[in-house]
Amino acid sequence: MLQLNFSSFPILETERLILRSHTNEDAEALFALRNNEDVMRFIHRERQKTVAEIENFISNFNDGCNQGQHLAWVIALKQNPSQMIGSIGYWRTNLVNYRAEIGYMLHPNYWRKGIISEALNKTIDFGFAEMNLHSIQANIDPENDASRQILLKHGFVKEAYFKEDFYFQGKFLDSEIYSLLESNVKWKR
């Protein structure tokens, strides 16, 4: 069975980005992200109502990271590593099957600049090389064409389309599932 045990939180770097752990200093930025209508348009999750709730969310999230349940990073520009502009990570880790679900969000000021693509490259590589994942999946709202296109660009393939499988705010919503197998990664080490 897969185990996620890191002696310290793995900080990742790309040409422009630093991917680091969440801290309470990120609470205001995360609160703003998770309450931004554009950001959350296709992310069907309950929104925290206060910064204190976000601080509790960060604490619970970090506890889960320390217990090897998931792993996620703050996305920040190297030129300003303390300013959170987004997040990316593995949220639902299926340890028995060496599979994890990747998710991401980015502040609209940074959309269409290749930032998610750059962060995805690094986290996918880390997922297969360091976490020993066999597959990575993504669950998207079928209306989210931008997310679909970025997944396809990175080699993900559509695995499933579920009709009304998710209940959120009084509605049944559809889901589209994409996956990437380690054996299909074109840019292997």
TrEMBL record:
Q: Does the keyword Acetylation apply?
A: no
* Gene3D superfamilies associated with the record: 3.40.630.30
Q: What is this protein called?
A: GNAT family N-acetyltransferase
Keywords in alphabetical order, please.
Answer: Transferase
| Residue ranges annotated for the N-acetyltransferase domain, each copy included | 17-174
Query: Which GO MF terms are attached to this record?
Result: acyltransferase activity, transferring groups other than amino-acyl groups
Lineage per the UniProt record: Bacteria, Pseudomonadati, Bacteroidota, Sphingobacteriia, Sphingobacteriales
Q: Which PROSITE patterns match?
A: GNAT (PS51186)
Q: Which InterPro entries match?
A: Acyl_CoA_acyltransferase (IPR016181), GNAT_dom (IPR000182), N-acetyltransferase (IPR051531)
Organism's domain of life?
Bacteria
